Amino acid sequence: MAKDLIQKCREYRDSADARAQGFYPYFRRIDDTIGNHVICDGVSRIMIGSNNYLGLAQDERVIEAACDAARKYGAGCTGSRLLNGNIRLHEQLEEALADFLQRESVLLFSTGFFANQGALASLTDHEDAILCDRENHASIIDGCQFAPAKLVPFRHNSATSLRNRLKRQPDTAGKLVVLDGVFSMSGDIADLPPIIEAAKEFGALTYVDEAHALGVLGPLGRGTVHHFGLNDEVDLVMGTFSKSLGSMGGFIAGKREVIEYLRHKARCFIFTASLAPAVAGGVLKALELMQAEPERIDALWRNTRKMHEGFKQIGFKIGTTQTPIVPILIGSEARAFQFTQRLYEEGVFATPAIYPAVRYGEAIVRTSYMSSHTDEDLDQVLEIFARLARELGTFDDPAYSEPGRRKNVFDFSLSYTEGSDAVRNGAGDPARNGSEFHPAVSR
Ligand SMILES: Cc1ncc(COP(=O)(O)O)c(C=O)c1O
Which end of the chain is more exposed for a tag (fewer CB within 10 A), N or C? Predict the structure, then answer.
């Protein structure tokens, strides 16, 4: 008899268990968004779980540009750009991005996820290797798995580990080094100078995902590669519109010949409908405003520094973050869910992250800040976090008091039982192709 493919669905209990315990933190319905507050269940809550770093998703001028584009071109393009879905706004946006990023050429994708998948899957062959930071985003990992090349993970943010892995690849193999410019869970910035230097030493192509760096780092928010003055050294840059630019969609920027190749070879560019006119029109306006109003970035960094300091003063561990992404260590998964639920009840919208998005026993509440948060909002958030930490005994968790015991607090039914923390801890055969890289391990 054929295997029953939906048996696992029947047996799936995790979400129901979390709901039964009153802790389910996902799919919260937002009925209205007013600046940096959202209305859920009839109550206004401060949003600290959004990637809308510059507040542009709510800017009236961006919304108006999106409406104008929809009126002119319709609600959708109803086809691939290659065929019937290429409008003037797509080309204008590509030109504006190329100009902003000081790149020869840009190609838009319908999501940032597709941009990574499309580029990574298209650029390598069987004999090649993609060297991938272990904490890269899930879309990079998935993109690598679509690629024919061997996937070679290197230790997070370690040029030494990268160099060791590069040494083991055959001289003749093509090599591509890919990493996030800002890491989406830890909030740390890629240590690009030594990493790019190591990549160049071995003739590797370099690729940086600027999803969380655009609008945040570098002059006028041009991203990590500009922050380090390495724009000429990095071959390809990927970005999304779903964060600072307040919308959705993504892009790859690089040399004209590479973009021309991707335009004709990337399957998730060719075989999907192009960006909706409203999206392209809105992003074009957001990009213009981001450059015209740099005070937004200044405000974002003021808020970021305030929250780093504020959380540390209370006694929270915020890891190695250097950016508006501020992970608050809670420890046990049950406590992270409970903490998130209590935040919600107190008027704060945030989300937890548990294994395999983070290490065993190091569950976090992931918070992120926007230029539009006021001091009053942020003081209130800090006061509530401090009060809840006392109420829920956060600082008594083994993650705070006995970090060595962190595996013993892997205790919540939503936890995954498979996956490999050996991957995160650097064990395993790094030269093996991909299989040690559990796709769910990364974010
Ligand atoms: C580092 C990184 N890359 C890529 C993506 C995918 O971007 P998008 O949401 O536009 O598909 C994300 C989204 O969270 C991300 O954090």
Answer: N
Element (H, E) at 9: helix 7-11
Query: Does 243 have pLDDT greater than 70?
Result: yes
**Domain 8-47+294-412 in this protein, CATH class:** alpha beta
CATH (one of 3.40.50.300, 2.40.360.10, 3.40.640.10, 3.40.50.1370) for 60-291 = 3.40.640.10
pLDDT score, position 360: 82
How much distance in Å is there from the Cα of 211 to the middle of ligand 1? 6
Q: Please name which of 326, 332, 310 lies closest in space to residue 403, comparing C-alpha atoms.
A: 332
Ligand 1 mutation pick, 111, 137, 251, max ligand atoms within 8 A of CB = 137
The pTM (predicted TM-score) of the whole model is: 0.91
Write out pLDDT tens, residues 290-309.
999 999 999 999 999 999 99
For 393-410, b/e burial (b = at least 16 CB within 10 A) is ebbebbbbeeeeebeebb
- The pLDDT of residue 356 is 80
Mutate to test the pocket of ligand 1, among 238, 240, 275, 366 (most ligand atoms within 8 A of CB): 240
Digit-coded pLDDT (tens) for 405-421 = 444 333 333 333 332 23
Residues near ligand 1 (Cβ within 6 A): 111-113, 116, 137, 139, 180, 184, 209, 211-212, 240, 242, 248, 250
Looking at residue 1, its pLDDT comes to 93
- In this predicted model, what pLDDT tens digit does every residue of 78-107 receive, in sequence order? 999 999 999 999 999 999 999 999 999 999
Decide if 212 is catalytic: yes
* Distance of alpha carbon 366 from alpha carbon 46, whole angstroms: 14
Distance, CA 112 to ligand 1 centroid (Å)?
A: 5
Catalytic residue among 243, 285, 373, 438: 243
Same fold for the pair 8-47+294-412 and 60-291: no
Map out the domains of the chain as residue ranges.
8-47+294-412, 60-291
**How many other C-beta atoms are found inside a 10 Å radius of the C-beta of residue 336?**
31
State both tokens at 360: 């065993």
Helices 192-201 + 159-167 axis angle, to 10: 10
Closest atom of ligand 1 to 183 CA is: 1
